[in-house]
Amino acid sequence: MATRGFGATRRGGLSATLGARLPRGQSLTDDFPVLSAGPTPHVEVANWKFTLKVGPRPVKVWNWAEFNALPQTRVVADIHCVTTWSKFDTGWQGVTVDDLLAAAGFAGAPTPFSLAHAYDDYSTNVDSADMLGGKAMVATHYDGAPLQAEHGGPARLLVPHLYFWKSAKWVSGLQFLQREELGFWELRGYHRRGDPFLQQRYSDD
User: Fold this and answer.
1) 160: nearest Cα among 79, 84, 81
2) Paired strand residues for 176
3) Does residue 157 fall inside a structural domain?
């Protein structure tokens, strides 16, 4: 895991309103620390594609131009990293998972579970219920600018209500599954769901 330092404020220094947004055990930062499981891949948009699968079967593939022609959504969200930093009011733009499924002809999630795949062979499992209702998107922009490679560009999954390892960088596709399959960190002892307000960091939490 690579990271750069950041200045942090703990819950005691926040107003009651802001403190309610900060999960127990987290520290607030104005920086955007960079963490990843390995080296940063540099994916050219000319070669980028996003694949939606149900089980082993690809049901829809978008190239960069096709993906960016889908309905665009902007969100402002707090994000929380399992390494105990949190960042408030981050701005993102991309395509919600709801709109991706609709574009592929689905009225909702086709299965109870999903697995996000990335260009660096990273994966993470997310319950389908945590992806719907505007809760998740494939983000291509951060803070009004194209997403930088160090933060997962050209596109990353964004599931801000879960710990940030669930928001897979350099995402290449979503696979919907009838049975849960654990991802990279989940196989190494991290919690299968990862709710920061429940402090679900590790498998026995």
Assistant:
1) 79
2) 54, 114
3) yes
